[in-house]
């Protein structure tokens, strides 16, 4: 019977859709009771469009519950737009295990035939996160250096470790020394459930969002770079 066959095909395709969307390109393991800030990048042509953060409560029906729009705070969620950087950030506070699930960074396009632009992020909230950072925000001076320590659980000991720049997704693999712009990126695994990243010769262009990545899990880190200190000029005649 053709009707039964069509129903069967629809059922299988729906299941595949749900399964594939369970695994996001970005997966975060977060501490219950903690706070996280996540960067969401968008194309410059969407600067004037509404930005929002939503929870994919019913993946099978492609339904997304909007938790907050850009430049607003709603409950435990704040969305802040940075048009000059073509990104917005999402801050989630007092994380609970019930917050576990699929979320979307989204730009509202409007129109029936123009779906919103979305990037999916799967978040797991637990008492002991599998991948995290000692400091989620670090700062350095132009020409100086900065260090980041990324932590991982025992189960991720043998996974590949990387330091990735968020906006262009360029990654630096642990155990190698690489060059980013004019700065040097050195990554090393200490073998005690953490790996360290040192960026030296910092440039203003190095500022922005990065991810500590271990296996499929990532943890966001923001780097700010201030002006190089001006040399003090002394008058030997005084």
Automatic annotation (TrEMBL):
<dbReference type="InterPro" id="IPR007110">
    <property type="entry name" value="Ig-like_dom"/>
</dbReference>
<keyword id="KW-0732">Signal</keyword>
<keyword id="KW-0472">Membrane</keyword>
<dbReference type="Pfam" id="PF07686">
    <property type="entry name" value="V-set"/>
</dbReference>
<dbReference type="GO" id="GO:0004888">
    <property type="term" value="F:transmembrane signaling receptor activity"/>
</dbReference>
<dbReference type="InterPro" id="IPR036179">
    <property type="entry name" value="Ig-like_dom_sf"/>
</dbReference>
<dbReference type="InterPro" id="IPR013783">
    <property type="entry name" value="Ig-like_fold"/>
</dbReference>
<keyword id="KW-0812">Transmembrane</keyword>
<dbReference type="GO" id="GO:0005886">
    <property type="term" value="C:plasma membrane"/>
</dbReference>
<dbReference type="InterPro" id="IPR013106">
    <property type="entry name" value="Ig_V-set"/>
</dbReference>
<feature type="domain" description="Ig-like">
    <location>
        <begin position="129"/>
        <end position="224"/>
    </location>
</feature>
<dbReference type="InterPro" id="IPR003599">
    <property type="entry name" value="Ig_sub"/>
</dbReference>
<feature type="domain" description="Ig-like">
    <location>
        <begin position="14"/>
        <end position="124"/>
    </location>
</feature>
<dbReference type="InterPro" id="IPR050671">
    <property type="entry name" value="CD300_family_receptors"/>
</dbReference>
<feature type="signal peptide">
    <location>
        <begin position="1"/>
        <end position="20"/>
    </location>
</feature>
<protein>
    <recommendedName>
        <fullName>Ig-like domain-containing protein</fullName>
    </recommendedName>
</protein>
């Amino acid at each position: 019977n053709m009707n039964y066959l069509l129903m069967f095909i629809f059922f299988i395709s729906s299941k595949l859709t749900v399964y594939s969307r369970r695994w996001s390109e970005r997966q975060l393991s977060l501490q219950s009771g903690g706070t996280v800030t996540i960067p969401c990048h968008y194309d410059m042509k969407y600067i004037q469009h509404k930005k929002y953060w939503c929870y994919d409560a019913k993946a099978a029906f492609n339904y997304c519950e909007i938790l907050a729009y850009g430049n607003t705070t709603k409950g435990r969620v704040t969305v802040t737009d940075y048009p000059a950087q073509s990104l917005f950030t999402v801050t989630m506070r007092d994380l609970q295990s019930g917050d576990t699930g699929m979320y979307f960074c989204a730009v509202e396009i409007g129109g029936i035939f123009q779906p919103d632009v979305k990037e999916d992020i799967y978040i797991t909230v637990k008492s002991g996160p599998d991948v995290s950072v000692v400091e989620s925000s670090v700062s350095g001076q132009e020409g100086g250096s900065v260090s980041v320590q990324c932590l991982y659980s025992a189960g991720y000991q043998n996974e590949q470790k990387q330091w990735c720049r968020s906006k262009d997704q360029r990654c630096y693999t642990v155990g190698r020394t690489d060059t980013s712009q004019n700065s040097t990126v050195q990554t090393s695994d200490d073998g005690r459930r953490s790996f360290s990243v040192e960026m030296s010769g910092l440039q203003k262009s190095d500022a922005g969002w990065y991810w500590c990545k271990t296996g499929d899990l990532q943890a966001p880190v923001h780097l700010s770079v201030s002006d190089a200190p001006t040399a003090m000029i002394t008058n030997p005649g005084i």
